[in-house]
Design a protein that fits this description.
The chain has 437 residues and is α/β, with parallel strands linked by helices. It has helices spanning 2-5, 7-20, 29-42, 73-79, 97-121, 132-140, 162-168, 203-215, 226-235, 259-268, 278-281, 283-304, 311-316, 319-335, 337-344, 353-367, 394-402, 407-433, and strands at residues 46-51, 83-89, 126-128, 144-151, 171-175, 218-220, 240-245, 271-275, 372-375. Mean pLDDT is 94; it is low at 4-20.
Length: 437
């Protein structure tokens, strides 16, 4: 149990440090690590974006096992990650009744999988939270916390009543688009070709924002276009979040938020959940690393007889085939990670936790600490060296301690800010439903 494992050591160290009146700068490396462990034990660590595959939510294969996935219960317990937002993600498809029906079926399958984990597979180890009070209660009971976010409002179709349905099934944030324009909103991907569908939000998208406010679902700015994001912030009656985005001033990628959006988010009272996604954190560094990594991986694969599928073959696979191949590919990388690291890192270092926390530093300075949080995008392409799965979560806290953040500040960044926004969103919903707003 995270909150007990290092408790005595943390108490002893804090007492000793206070007695000696030591600052972080005066600590030895061993003392610094013990101090950071104490903080990591006491704060609630919350990651707002962890993708799932429903094939990992069955009685035979599930998150009670130490799967090759970046997130599962053993890895959460090992790394001290308390809260995982599991994502009901739907890729963008046709804007037709048939497309909407397939999208809803996909979303329904993922909602059911998350509930199955919490209610049937491992109710003694993880529980679904719907409020910030739930998070604190479940964490205090020694269990891990699941929450639900929706990535892409495509499954809403043209039926606005589905917003309440998704809320009732546990969703507490939703983005209106992913990669590709939805019926609700333009996507950031329009920057590639300057082709837009709505020039921001559609009329239906505006209705959906109002419904999200009414039922207490946080509006997520990650993935929609800049124009759509700014329109959402003007329309919403509640604070917003960016569930997994970084700072565009630090790395010019359409998935990152520029300073204009950041300042508007600050005025709105929202929070940016800084994402540990390599190409969003430092695209140039990541590109150099990937080139060298692929060279080394291909050489090892040839020696070991593992076939690396080119993109054309991967795209031709069925969903189950892709999942099986991706799992085998990750397992192959994991098996040879030390050999790969030795051959690659000294020449072309990877994007790491320090690079990630550089974005946190920038955001804190730009919009204020109370508007900054943390996300990984694990099992959706995310992760940086040093925080490449949930088992390495402590390394983020350690880096924050090295940068001089206090325990209170680290607690706000890890979970306090996001939970504050959730509280405010739910209070706005209460007022709307009561006719007070």
């Amino acid at each position: 149990m995270k909150r007990i494992t290092h408790f005595l050591a943390a108490v002893l160290f804090v007492f000793t440090a206070c007695e000696q009146n030591k600052s972080v700068e005066d600590m030895t490396e061993e003392e610094l690590i013990e101090y950071a462990k104490g903080i990591h034990e006491r704060v609630i660590t919350l990651d707002t974006h962890d993708d799932i595959r429903t094939s990992n939510f069955t009685q035979e294969r599930n998150y009670t096992q130490r799967l090759s996935t970046q997130v599962n219960l053993p890895k959460m317990e090992e790394g001290g990650l308390d809260v995982a937002w599991f994502i009901v993600y739907t890729g963008q498809g046709e804007l037709s009744e048939e497309g909407y029906a397939r999208a809803y079926e996909n979303a329904d399958d993922k909602f059911k999988a998350i509930h199955r984990l919490c209610e049937e597979i491992a109710p003694d180890r993880i529980e679904l939270a719907l409020t910030s009070d739930d998070v604190r209660r479940i964490d205090a009971a020694g269990k891990k916390v699941a929450m639900i976010g929706i990535e892409n409002g495509y499954p809403v179709g043209t039926d606005v009543s589905r917003v309440k349905e998704f809320h009732d099934r546990g969703a507490r944030y939703m983005s209106l688009a992913h990669n590709g324009h939805s019926q609700l909103s333009d996507s950031n991907t329009g920057e590639r070709d300057s082709v837009w569908l709505h020039n921001g939000l559609s009329d239906l998208g505006k209705e959906v924002i109002a419904e999200m406010n009414k039922w207490g679902i946080m509006v997520d700015l990650s993935h929609p276009s800049k124009k759509a994001n700014m329109e959402m912030m003007r329309l919403t009656k509640a604070p917003v979040i960016a569930s997994h985005s970084a700072a565009r001033a630090m790395n010019d990628h359409s998935r990152n938020l520029d300073d204009e959006q950041l300042m508007m988010l600050k005025e709105n009272g929202g929070v940016v959940q800084t994402v540990a996604f390599r190409s969003y954190v430092d695209g140039e560094k990541n590109s150099a690393y990937r080139t060298k990594f692929n060279e080394v991986l291909a050489q090892i694969a040839e020696e070991e007889g593992f076939e690396i599928k080119p993109g054309s073959l991967f795209r031709a696979m069925t969903g189950d085939e892709r999942s099986a191949y991706f799992a085998a590919y990750r397992e192959f990388q994991e098996t040879h990670k030390d050999r790969i690291a030795e051959a690659v890192h000294s020449e072309t270092p990877p994007v790491d936790v320090a690079d990630f926390v550089d974005h946190i530093d920038y955001l804190v300075e730009k919009i204020g600490l109370e508007h900054v949080g943390i996300s990984s995008d694990f099992d959706g392409g995310g992760g940086v060296h040093g925080w490449d799965d949930a088992s390495e979560t402590f390394n983020v806290t350690l880096e924050l301690v090295r940068r001089g953040y206090s325990e209170e500040e680290i607690g706000m960044i890890w979970s306090g800010n996001l939970l504050r926004v959730l509280d405010e969103v739910q209070e706005v919903a209460r007022k709307i439903q009561a006719g007070e707003l």
